[in-house]
Amino acid sequence: MDNIIGGEIDISLDSFNSNENYSFYDRLLFYDSGRTALSVVLSNNYISNHKFLLPIYSCESIIKPFKELNVHFDYYDINLNLDLDLEIIQTRMHQEEFTAILIIDYFGFTFDKNVISKLKNFGLFVIEDISHLSVIPLLFNKYKSLSDIIFGSLRKNLPVADGGFIVKNSNFSFQQIEPEYTLHSMFKLSSKILRGIYSESNIRNDDFEETYLKLSAKAEHLLDLSDSNLKGMSNWSLNLLKRLDLLKIYEKRRLNFKMLLILFIDNELIDIPLINKDIDSHPEYMPYLFPIMVNKKNKLIRETLKSNSIYTSIIWESFDKKRIENYPNSKYISENILCLPVDDRYGSSDMMFLFKKIRSLL
Ligand SMILES: Cc1ncc(COP(=O)(O)O)c(C=O)c1O
Question: In the chain, pLDDT over 90 holds for what percent of residues?
């Protein structure tokens, strides 16, 4: 029976027996999700009075806090290599009086220091979303950012049920929220543990798969519908977080990404990876997905892989089909991207298996 590859980052029962590592987390404020962390940031009047540029290549949950808190914003497009177009940003800033920008470290690759320092030199207030990178490179002091605010989600990228964070910052004192149990964290914890059991077993069962998917979808739905009260992170997830082997996560994800990239390059499929970066000379990078461009075949390939127990994702399908027409690069990426899993659950044989399957479908 083939291994399951990809899908939600599940929770192994073993993780409850690992040792705790408390000291890492003094630098963070915790909330139930990334969007709550962003809402807390935007609850600060100095910050919410800014006029923001937001990337349209993003997910709706990032935009929602801006809408709910009536913060002024408009979208910007990114380059086809996921970089910022500094010239356009500067022009729009002057013509339309934007004073702040939100940037996303897509797929776990940080922006060059010069890019952030240029944004700051333009006079922009910079909020950086490191959900894809996770806090790990930051906690290991591999990444030092110049941004004014750094925040992110924990629940998508790590084996926890819920969670978001703001990196503490001497210029702002953000609202702290006590840990609490939420219904969405309860559903997500159940779904991720079920999936952990299912993945570790050698048994495939449609009922089990369906139950896990239903619980997970219910958790997402509950979070999407939750009221505007800011919520804390569950003690379940805080406890799991303290027990993670952060070094293993950091090293394996980097190794898997590197291996997959080499496989594409060696097989003369160099145009397929969306990101071709030298990880070895950048200790700050920590990818968890490997995005490729598959010429509008992303949905088809995703479905075919699913029948081989390989779960890939499209990050992101546009949340506003009409508006994205004005942002051609983001539209192009959304329509062609497919994201392959390279997280720490997998090793070199999984990467080889994944590569061979993908190659046969290109
Ligand atoms: C880059 C990024 N930022 C923020 C979020 C929002 O995080 P959450 O779903 O925990 O609110 C997501 C969610 O997928 C994300 O991908």
Answer: 88
**Residue 67 banded pLDDT, cuts 50, 70, 90:** very high
Residue 149 belongs to a domain: no
Do the Cβ atoms of 100 and 53 come closer than 8 Å?
yes
SS3 340: strand
pLDDT digits over 28-63, tens only? 999 999 999 999 999 999 999 999 999 999 999 999
**How many distinct structural domains can be found in the chain?**
1
CATH of the domain at 255: 3.90.1150.10
Residue 231: HSE in the Cβ half-sphere, 13 Å Cα cutoff: 20
| Residue 35 Cβ contacting ligand 1 at under 6 Å | yes
Residue whose CA lies nearest to ligand 1 atom number 1: 131
> Does ligand 1 lie within 6 Å of residue 155's CB atom?
yes
| Candidate from 40, 60, 130, 156 with most ligand 1 atoms within 8 A of CB, to mutate | 156
Q: For residue 1, name the pLDDT band (cuts at 50, 70, 90).
A: low
| 335 vs 339: CA distance, rounded Å | 12
Would you say residue 307 lies in a domain? yes
C-beta separation of 89 from 53 below 8 A: yes
The range of the structural domain enclosing residue 341 comes to: 245-361
**Cis peptide leading into residue 236 (ω within 30°):** no
Q: Which of 31, 59, 68 to mutate to test the pocket of ligand 1 (most atoms within 8 A of CB)?
A: 59
41 in contact with ligand 1, CB cutoff 6 A: no
Q: Is 104 in the pocket of ligand 1 (CB under 6 A)?
A: yes
Whether pLDDT at 132 is above 90: yes
Is residue 267, in this structure, part of any structural domain at all? yes
